[in-house]
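Contributing: when you submit paired examples, paste them exactly as shown. First protein:
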Amino acid sequence: MDEVVAKNSGIVIFGEHTIVDQWHALSRGEGNFFICRNYQELSNFDPNKNTVIFFKTNTRESVKTALIIKLKGFRVIKFWTGTDVLNLQNLTYFKKIISLFLIKKCVGLHLTNGTWLTEELQALKIVSHQWVSPTPLYFDAKEIPLKELQLKKEDSNKTVLIYSNEGREWLYNTKLMLEIAQATPQLNFIFIGNNALNTDYLPNTESLGVVTSDKMVKLYKTSHVLLRITEHDGFPRMVIEALYFGLDVIFNNPIPHTTLCSKNIDEIKNILSSNKTLETNVKGRNYALTEFSAKKWIKDIQEYTKILRKEK
């Protein structure tokens, strides 16, 4: 790594994760953002001039990462997305007490991507701020004219997108989602994210497994609804992306310009069967493009790091 990096002042995005890769893609071109994959690379940065932000879902790994970064002298920001909050909540009493003590000692600023996560952390005596990052698909969606997205509404075959995940089907209520697909044969359902999911017995349902970003753009452009009813969640990137492309979003957490829904199968069926979901979600698209732009996201994190530097 160029020695010049150590002389610069900025924000170091740390770790190996899909979210970290997305942060890197969103911040590319910004002079005060740097990517750092491991502790060896971190030694090239000046701790007096740089703030490190990281994300880990495993509590033990999260504490370890925060401790090492802190011991190296850096200001530390931890980003919480949902699974990591759930994992912390589910620890045994003594492990939770120790983990909370170390996290509070090492982390200078906590960021969440959902107001409900802020409330859950508050119950654990962790004060956090909301910071919802956009996704790289923001750039694709921004370039697509609204009229192009409205053309899909001429297709009477309503298509519903659903996310699943191999090994965590319980978290994404995959069984319930399959029951809904079976109960509404007049609709088309597309599952993504789970290479092991079998939907061959459902003629109106297809499972594509893990797909590329280019494929996701095509799916968003031709689909009408994103259905996401989970056991626990943050502010999913997929919800933001669906709003970018004007989809109606049915979600069980409160987000502007989405439809709030419970796990009740009849309630979900009624919402899916309504004509409303055939309309382009213009308000949702405008909201997402405005509130979850790369420019705003970068500005927000820069302001948070200023706060942290003042508090040190």
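Second protein:
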Amino acid sequence: MPEPDWHTLRPVDLDFEAKAEQVFRMQEQVAAPLERVWEAFADAVTWSRWFPGVEWARYDGAGPAGVGTIRRSSVGGVQYEETMLVWDRPRRWAYRVDRSTAPVARAQLEITDFERSGPGTRVRWTLAVEPLEKLGYMADGTPFERFLANLFRDAMRGLEAYLA
């Protein structure tokens, strides 16, 4: 199988969240304990079982994963290479996208915050991006922010089912 064509993104740090051209923030309640939610996020291999569109995900190296670890994934046929920037068990997890097989952005940062909330967990997801073209609408006319909100909601419901 031939090597895919890769698009390299600009490396960014956590301060990119405040400078990004577009920032999207989502929040969902997950009916599962904080520690179990964290473990599912931290275990790359499980993502294909609960996050829509994720075909596979894995970390480079023998582990354990943490800050500086490279995560590779395939989502909707697009491959990604990411560097973990935060690994603050069980509160915060963040990575930047280093390269992808779809040229969509110049820079991208994703941050997920976890907070105990009653018997469950509040999960907050932030996507900070400098897109090649403004992310306004999907091909079917759905506003991009609504698409992300629906995707995140479906992922968190999938996570609940996986952890049940």
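If you have annotations for the second protein, write them as plain sentences, like these:
Residues 144-163 form the longest helix (20 residues).
The CA atoms of residues 59 and 65 lie 7 Å apart.
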